[in-house]
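User: Some background: our group keeps a shared notebook of sequences we're curious about, and every so often someone picks one and asks for a predicted structure to add to the entry. Today it's my turn. The entry only has the sequence so far, pasted here. Could you supply the structure so I can complete it?
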Amino acid sequence: MTNPLRLGVNIDHVATIRNARGGDHPDPVRAAEIVARVGGDGITAHLREDRRHIRDDDLRRIQEATDLPLNLEMAATEEMLEIALAHKPHAACIVPEKREERTTEGGLDAAGQHNTLAPIVWKLKDNGIRVSLFIEADERQLDAALKLGVPVVEFHTGEYAHAHLDGDGDKLARELKRISDMAALAAKNGIEPHAGHGLTYENVQPIAAIPQIAELNIGHYLVGEAVFVGLESAVRHMRELMDEAR
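Assistant: Of course. Here's the predicted structure to add to the notebook entry:
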């Protein structure tokens, strides 16, 4: 039997549009409610240190508005740890974060930051929060995740997405194999592999077809498509493509 594939929808950029004008429209909570209604499996939100999109109070309102599990993307800082412990989301995905970047540019260096990450991972796990690391599909980083004892890793698919956009068939094949191989290795070692970043209607199916991957987190593309077809239609179509691939 084929393993089910979950869709987590990142609603950050609904908040980005809201914050461009101030006020409270469009409300990311309304987006979360739509995702719940049309078959999304979870809500992902990245509370950045500069609060450029999701704001602190959004987390509470999202949790109150829907029963879908909340996956909080967070930097490995004491401030974000305190916020995570206060809100107790279903999951916390630790991501790299730089003020000057437009979006997350790559995976977390879990191997090089073990001593920083270990106490944060321990405190999150001790409070019943499922911890994930957003890493490159790389054996060294996966080994670091194993040593840190996290139950989940999310593989950064940005290079795969760039190769698809550039029409670089050789690189696309290499990136897909790299992600597939590391997903198999993660599952073999008891870690649940997820994937995300830059996934679109056009490139999602080869990633979705990797049998060990349990969840895809997709946001910017779906919010962009929602401008033209509505969020409900965008999420439904992505769900259909993912299901076809399985």
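Suggested note for the entry: Strands lie at 6-10, 42-46, 70-74, 91-94, 130-135, 152-156, 192-196, 215-218. The chain has one domain: 6-245.
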